[in-house]
Amino acid sequence: MTTDRPTVAPTTLPAPRPAPPGPGPAAAPRGRFLARAFGVTAVLSAAGSALGLLRDLLLARYFGANQGTDAFLVAWTVPETAAPLLIEDAMSFLMVPAFALALVLREERPDGPDPVRQVVRATLPWLLLALTTLSLGAALGAPQLVDLLAPGLADPRLAVTCTRITALTVLPFGVAGYLAAALRAHHRFTAPAGIYVAYNLGILVVLLSCHALWGVRSAAIGVALGSLLMAGLLIGPFLRALRTGPGRAARGRRSRNALVLIPLALLPVGAFTLTRQAQVFIERYLGSGLPPGTISHLNYAAKVSQLAMTAGILICTVTFPLVARALAAGDLTAARDRVEKDLGQAAAVVLLGTAFLMACAPSVVALLFERGAFGPRDTAATAAVIRVYSFGLLAQALIGVMIRPYFSLRPAVRRAGDPSPDDGGRRLLDWYPAAAMALGLVVTVTVGLLATPRFGALGLAAGNAAGITAAAALLLRGLVLRGIPLRLRRVLGGQARLLAAAAGAAALGMPVAGLTADPLLSTVLGGLTVALAFAALGTGLGAHEVRGPVRAAVRVLGPVPDPPPVADEGNPPHGR
């Protein structure tokens, strides 16, 4: 792979490039714009998550947890794999830095050929061809996929039918991920944030209208329809973003500021995403040999647990273009500061959600799912899995934050005039994230095989949590090796304070949630206790990700003491 980005030490970074004269329309957002972008993304993502939760509620109500839902969930492995690969992870990791570099070049040479349109012409046709091939291949190979993913299914025919339907999602998912990456690089977040609203609306429409006629196949058809709506939502904004750029042709002799495509950059990114998603494959494989309904319990638990993780990832979804721009311009210090801040803020959000789930899992599951074909035994099994899953939520969120700057240092394009050094063994660091995830999978498989015979689904959840935590620890070290000099003592100290606050909040919230058998009242009381305890403990322990919002909230009610000096920031207060 040919590139000009650093791999090991900060000293190998190129010198910072001069900023373009005057603030252009694509200048990095700051202040109010960043807050508005996060607000819009949070609201629309919350709406998409709420509709996704409603989708899962209807699946549980109409079909319960049985062989039929197990068959659909095996088929759902295709879009569950395609979505991270083509929307959330690999496509974003590749194309946001590529478009960010193109925008930097556009600002530096406003009179030259338009690099943004050059990137589109060089990548989009090949992408469409590859996606069409993958989609057809998954549909034709559905029997083999089902046999590979869940060999223990008693009757795989329904799973094969649903897999052939869900295979159609690969093409629109890839198009949606590409267009969303381009729009986010242009700092346009509204349409990309709404794609899961469109996706889940498509599923709900088919599920509500056709569940009695088509059974669980209606969910698979809804997934295919929702994927088409996702791509359709982004086409208009993408075309408008291209039209707002300079109307220059990109043909002619290549200048220094032209871009060179590096197709092989896809390989380590795709390998990382697939090894990360392989945790789901392991669960499906081992769970297919357990009693019917186990895969469904794992699925419902994962969907609820990951709501907290998704909320934390929203932060770096908005800030990722800023990190990519800083790295494209050679500003390593700004990128490091932003990544450290993202790690702390994402951890605070995820750990608050983790403490809530630890304390209130039984009441949350009963409140959401316990109706229709989903009974009390399903509630107890799902709640137990949620509590075990929650041990790995922080690691999942931290990996989501760290992997973005990691791959931004090896973008899919480079400047034509920049040198392409032969850095030998340093290129192996491109594969470090995939290797870290592979080692995490070894931990997952080992724990799963040892614990599943005795603990069933809880053993699978424990393996998931252990494996993802091991991978996160490895990737934290890898980010420093890559060239971003994180201040590890500061980062780990902040994480430890947040972990202590979350553990205390969960310990206080659990007995309060158990005071009443009413699911709604138990969830409210337990949730309030967890939130207040986390705020108090986080502030007392000196976690500035908690202390800052708490101080801002208290200022609304009355005056507060002046904050400590900057030198004491992040240190636990003494004598309190």
Structure overview:
With 576 residues, the protein is mainly α. It is 73% helix and 1% strand. It is built from 21 helices and 2 strands. It has helices at residues 32-63, 67-75, 77-88, 90-108, 115-140, 142-149, 157-166, 170-185, 190-193, 195-214, 217-244, 266-287, 294-328, 332-369, 376-389, 393-408, 432-455, 457-482, 488-513, 519-541, 544-557; strands at 259-261, 413-415. Strands 1-2 form a two-stranded antiparallel ribbon. The longest helix has 38 residues, at 332-369. Mean pLDDT is 80; it is low at 1-29, 248-257 and 566-576. The chain crosses the membrane at residues 33-54, 82-105, 126-146, 158-181, 193-214, 220-239, 259-282, 307-328, 349-369, 389-407, 428-451, 457-476, 496-514, 520-541. It is a multi-pass membrane protein. This is Peptidoglycan lipid II flippase. Its main location: membrane. Residues 13-26 have a biased composition (Pro residues).
Uncertain spans: 1-29, 248-257, 566-576
Helix-strand pattern, N to C? HHHHHHHHHHHEHHHHHEHHHHH
| Gap from first CA to last CA | 55 Å
Number of strands: 2
Q: How many helices?
A: 21
What spatial order of strands do you see in the largest sheet? Answer: 1-2
Give the rounded overall mean pLDDT. Answer: 80
- Quickly give the structural class: mainly alpha
Global outline: globular
Biased composition (Pro residues): 13-26
Region (Disordered): 1-26
Keywords: Cell membrane, Cell shape, Membrane, Peptidoglycan synthesis, Transmembrane, Transmembrane helix
InterPro entries: Lipid_II_flippase_MurJ/MviN, MurJ
